[in-house]
Amino acid sequence: MDRHGQVVALLDATGIFFEPARTAFPGADGAAWARAALLDPGAAGPDGAWRLDFRCFAVARPGGRWVLVDAGVGPAGSPAAAWAPVPGRLPDALGAAGIDPADVEAVVLTHLHEDHAGWSSGADGEPFFPEARYVVQRAEVAALDRADPVWDWTVAPLRASGRLQEVDGTHRLAPGITLLPTPGHTPGHQSVLVDQGAGARDVVVTGDVLVHAVQLGDPAVPYSHERDRETARASREALLARARERGALLATAHLTRAFVEPPGETSPGRPC
Questions:
Q1: Exposed end of the chain (fewer CB within 10 Å): N or C?
Q2: Which residues pair with 134 in a beta bridge?
Q3: What distance in Å separates the CA atoms of residue 13 and residue 54, rounded to the nearest whole number?
Q4: Which pTM does this prediction carry?
Q5: Residue 197 three-state SS
Q6: CA-wise closest residue to 238 among 176, 167, 189
Q7: Are 237 and 230 in contact (CB under 8 A)?
Q8: What is the DSSP letter of 243?
């Protein structure tokens, strides 16, 4: 189990992306790809393919309670099935970490893409985490097309059950857990700062602000599926600067290493 202090990495799935890395990240030069290969060698698939993980994170809370950040690709019938490797194995990963779904008090959805909301609920519309509130930026919900399958899979049932909590901007979820707006990948994307207190390093859960190690080595590199590339770049640069200032680790959703060092002012990050 990969863990840094209170933060536990939970691997839901691993697979090959439907686009080669050099298509998904246009404009990266040879030096950026060389740095990426050193930072995350596991991402190199056959014939230039991009191999990525789909990861959630659990943050320990007092009394045996937990906050989950993101909800993975989901079961076989989830919206992510159109392109991601389903079914995910989050239920088994939770069990291995000793986490009962009923002990999850909140699920923070960094954004409403299929591979981050899959275990929010099941085909029956019931929340997978029965005692949790599901926390998302109001701007993210407002921007989601009603025809998007995530609406019927996640937003509609959670609203109906009264478990969807929409927040605006920076939000203190609990002591030591702060939600940070990081728009660009989607209009209401958010990341999570975990302040672990004296004697332990803070952790920044990046969501899809950082999707591939090529963006860790060169934060200016865009991702082809970002809604607003300039805003995404600004969010990425600001979040990485914040992590450096705090001496925080980065917890990544899609790199094949769960925890990485933020890049220095003049040097790329490195794996932990």
A1: N
A2: 107, 164
A3: 5
A4: 0.95
A5: coil
A6: 189
A7: no
A8: H
